Amino acid sequence: MTVRSAILLLVLGLPAVLLLLFGPRNTYEVPSDRTVIRYWEKWSGLEGLAMQRVVDRFNETVGAEEGIWVQYCAISNVDQRTLVATAGGDPPDVAGLFDHVVPQFADQGALLELDDLVEEFGIDGQAFKPNWWRIGVYNDRLYALPSTPYTIALYYNRRLFRQAGLDPDRPPQTIAELDECSRRLTVRDEEGRIVQAGFMPAPALLGWWHWVWPHFFYANLWDGERFGLDTPEGLACARWLAERRAEIGFQEALAFEGTAGAIEGSQNPFIGERIAMVFQGPWVANWVRTYNPSMDYGVAAFPSVRADRRPAFLSSDVFVIPRGSRHPREAMVFLRFVLRQDVMEGLCREHCKVSPFRQPGPDFFDGHPNPYIRVFDELALAKETFGHPAMPTFKQASTEMLFWLENVLQGVRGPEEAVRNTQQKIDAIVNDYNRKAERRRASAR
Amino acid sequence: MTVRLPNWIRGLIWTAPWWLGFLIFLAVPMGMSFYISLCDYPLLQPPVYIGMDNYREMTVDPIFHKVLSNTLIYAACAIPLGTVLAVLLAVLLNQPVRGQALFRTCIFVPTIVPIVATAVIWLWMLNPQFGLINQGLGRVGIEGPTWLASPNWAMTSLVLVSLWAVGSPVVIYLAGLQDIPEALYEAARLDGAGVFRQFRHVTLPGLSPVILFNVVIGIIATWQVFAVPYVMMKGSPGPDRSTYFYTMYLFDNAFRYLNMGYASAMAWVQMLIILALTGLVFLVGRRAVYYRGL
Q1: How many helices and strands in chain B, by DSSP H and E?
Q2: Are the beta carbons of A199 and A178 closer than 8 angstroms?
Q3: Which of A254, A400, A421, A439 to mutate to test binding with chain B, by most B CBs within 10 Å of its CB?
Q4: Is residue B251 part of a domain?
Q5: CB neighbours of B105 closer than 8 A, spacing ≥ 6?
Q6: Where are the alpha helices (DSSP H) in A318-414?
Q7: Contact residues, chain B, for A83 at CB < 8 Å
Q8: Which residue in A109, A251, A258 is closest to B44 by CB distance?
Q9: What pLDDT was estimated at residue A26?
Q10: Which residue from B187, B215, B211, B214 is spatially nearest to B201, judged by alpha carbons?
Q11: Cβ of residue A257 closer than 8 Å to a chain B Cβ
Q12: Quick one: pLDDT at residue B294?
């Protein structure tokens, strides 16, 4: 070995040896006398840290008494990974999923039914607001428990309202008022490019729930058997979207949408004060506090056709126990702890969300990081509410609804044609699913 | 006591790392995937045999037709453009000029940037208002399109991005250029051939086996395109499904819609298409490719 190669070996090898000897280690070791519960969750960052604190508290208290250790694992694409792990026979013991996947997972038999377990472990469903508890029910069976719930509302920029000569204490209540406000809030540069928008329902501009808009025209998208976009309400919504867009200008609107960047930071068009109104959840308050603390904004129920009838959209993260979990009973011990009112409300506060309980704790609202949390909480009690369509084919239907919206917003199809096409596609998806389900049932017989 | 094993068993033992790996990780999964392609298999329930139904469904599935045509268009644009650009760059980089190594490095560096990072960079380059490309076009009085947001331009944008990774074939072409004897160029010059005729009659025939190789690799890569459009379109199939490619639809069927049977059938059809196209290229190559010394 030459001197040169010896030096090279030392330079490359020494750091590796040092890393092995003194490098980072697991931050904790699982006590040998505990049953390990694998808990997969979608949250990372601040939300993940908040959940990790709950897990740590469990491991130090109830977990220590009951001989259980929960291992928290933040996973991207948690629904797909949970599904594949369940199909492979090695699922986590608890998974934190989105509510809209519950019907699909439950219909495929991927989730454990929780009715009996909930009763056995003394989790009182009556303590929760019915809307949140119902989110985990599919075909009259309970498959998921509410985690951190949220309603979605209209955020509006009070400073921009004042600047446009609008009353910041009177946000729009009807679709017509929303359009009028939007017109007055839209600002263009000398070349006609939009530099500030009022409201745009595009996913890029924080309208993440691209299928919701027909609900504000009183459409009921899913009646348990059929997806109903081709109703007068659905058509009215499509016409509204198309007309508003044509008024703004298809190309100009698309170019403006392209300016939206990362949601956390000044590239966020609402936080950057480039769009005055967005349809968003309570977590936006966290972003505002972090990235634009001096921003003057308000929150209200989203406008609808009539001011006296405004449906509210609600959704929730959920806990499930996948089929094939090795320790379902221990998982229930953990879930019972997390669903304790003090624990769950602490988590909801840290996530900036509402409480799922009928009677929020006395100190839940005081000092809540979202100054408009009561608005979000009241929306959960609105006379008319809706959630994700509880259909096992929601992912396909949602994709088709995205095309519907994009086609209308980009002027690729007229509203009537877009509605007709989308309805046909979703009908075909639902019929195909039912046909296959029937075939499977017949095969099982 | 010494046991003397027959030669063929010893051979099998010594080659076991390969054939065991081949059996476990390739042959068995492929066999299973073929069986699954004949089944209705939603992952969480046992597969139900349905014969050729999945293959028949492809013939009437409009989304399948759309992704097939999208992928075909993408391949038909990206492969020829990439090939022409790579050959031209390789010829330029082969010129004995000062800073040759630096130029070569500059062309190759983009290929070592991770795919996701490349996608994010291009996302910003193609931003309709702030993007470098539209800013540049604006300077010369052209109003740039909305690129990824436009059904007419989204595919063009992705073809443009595919050219970013032209550095890998350029390196292979450069190696191929070193293999062309200088004597051929000298003879061509003596016969009065200029730069372009030398390129047409010496360089291109000399490079033709390498071009064939790169085209075949290009066919395989373009028919499997997934990561860049998936990241750039944020998992969406693009306006009017204009950037929805074969592998993306296959992935969605397998892991989002739980149609593993249909996804497996798609995978087999994909393999057959790639095989057929590769065969076609080799067929054409018989006449067009010049193998020196054969």
Answers
A1: 15, 2
A2: yes
A3: A254
A4: yes
A5: none
A6: 328-338, 341-350, 373-379, 394-409
A7: 43-44, 255, 258
A8: A109
A9: 64
A10: B187
A11: yes
A12: 46
Nearest in space to A305 (alpha carbons), one of A179, A201, A216: A216
Answer whether A258 sits within 8 Å of B50, measured CB to CB.
Answer: no
Q: Residue B32 domain-assigned?
A: no
Question: How far away is chain A from the Cα of B150, in angstroms, using its nearest Cα?
Answer: 8
Q: What is the pLDDT of residues A130-184, one digit of tens each?
A: 999 999 999 999 999 999 999 999 999 999 999 999 999 999 999 999 999 999 9
Return the H-helix or E-strand segment holding A148.
Answer: strand A145-157
- B221-272 pLDDT per residue, tens: 999 999 889 888 877 777 778 889 999 999 999 988 889 999 999 999 999 9
Number of domains in chain B: 1
Residue B263 lies in a domain: yes
B95 touches chain A (CB under 8 A): no
ipTM > 0.90 (yes/no):
no
Contact between chains at A251 and B236 (C-beta distance less than 8 A)? no
Give contacts of B127 with chain A, Cβ < 8 Å: 258-259
Q: A-B interface: how many C-beta pairs under 8 angstroms? A: 79
3-state SS class at B191: coil
For residue B239, give the CATH number of its domain: 1.10.3720.10
Q: How confident is the model at residue B176 (pLDDT cuts 50, 70, 90)?
A: very high
pTM: 0.85
Extended strands (E) in A245-321: 275-280, 297-300, 312-320
In this predicted structure, the answer to whether residue B285 has a pLDDT above a threshold of 90 is: no
Domain limits for position B215: 56-288
Interface contact A258-B40, CB threshold 8 A: no
